[in-house]
Predict the 3D structure of the following.
Amino acid sequence: MNNSDLESYLLSLDKDLVLREKSDRVSITVPSEKLLQVMTQLRHDRALTFDMLSAHTAIDWSNENKLELIYQLYSSEHHHRIMVGVYLNREAPVTFSLCSLWQIAEWQEREVFDMFGVRYQNHPDLRRILLEDEWQGHPLLKDYKDDFMLERPW
Amino acid sequence: MGITMNQLLPKSLEAIPGGPALLTSLDSLINWARSNSLWPLTFGTSCCAIEVMMAAGASHHDLARFGAEVARPSPRQADLLVVAGTIVKRMAPRLKVLYEQMAEPKYVIATGACAISGGPFIYESYATVRGVHEVIPVDVYVPGCPPRPEAFFYGLLALQRLIREGETIRKPGERKKPVLAALPPGITLEQIRSELIANLENKAVVNRYE
Ligand code: SF4
């Protein structure tokens, strides 16, 4: 499907989806409680078949007190892409694990947990992946501080 | 200057009484040979490795002119560790292990701002080691972000000069002060090239059969 077909198809599926800015791929925002349902549709709908989770990361919008999760999906069957964003509460970010849909999500979610502290429900093995197990805090959060870090002198 | 020889040669070989001449020249011969066969360890952790290890080793710049092109994947076979890139806290112990696995004599060149001081990541970074000298001893610093291959060669020639003058390691484990091999400001590429060519010819790193 080309981008405009994909957009109209997605909007017909679920009216809670919000289209975002235009770019080389379709991008949508999903309400956090609907994430698992929408992702299952994206993965298993025959017309969509997003069978590859190529990236998963997060953005710390600390001044709006929000944490945004980003999923980049690709379909190796239809060769289309989509970006899915989900806003979480920054104080206690909890969401559903997508390991059952894409196995690689297991490591990608471990990384986001490591760096941003997002808790994934039903994740089989939610441990730190890059930092030491005994590390305190989540360093990619904007208000992260530790003894090793040097303050910028300007 | 016979110290190295006494330690390295078999016990049966004794110093010639009253005649250090043989040992002295052997020392400088060995230093000359060492300086022209620096085998670097294939080690690059980020962007500097592209410039310093890959571009410098490829045919256009041709590290082979200085006898340092035999990049070894094993620290046991290498005697030059070029730290090309950012070192983070989790990498530091591995870097130390690699350094310790190298056989003496071993030399370290730190290239780029990251390896010298932490570079662009010095402030507000939770992971970047602020200079490899916090982990292993360094012989030559090559500044830049990244240094051009010419600047790296300049550092390599500085290290070769150090070795030839017996400045770097006489006894294993004992190190001299590190040097900063910065290209002088205002220097042009042509000047560097002609200096490198003059160096190659004068110091007999390569022979010209004419
Ligand atoms: S000094 Fe610059 S080019 Fe070299 S590794 Fe650091 S950031 Fe990259």
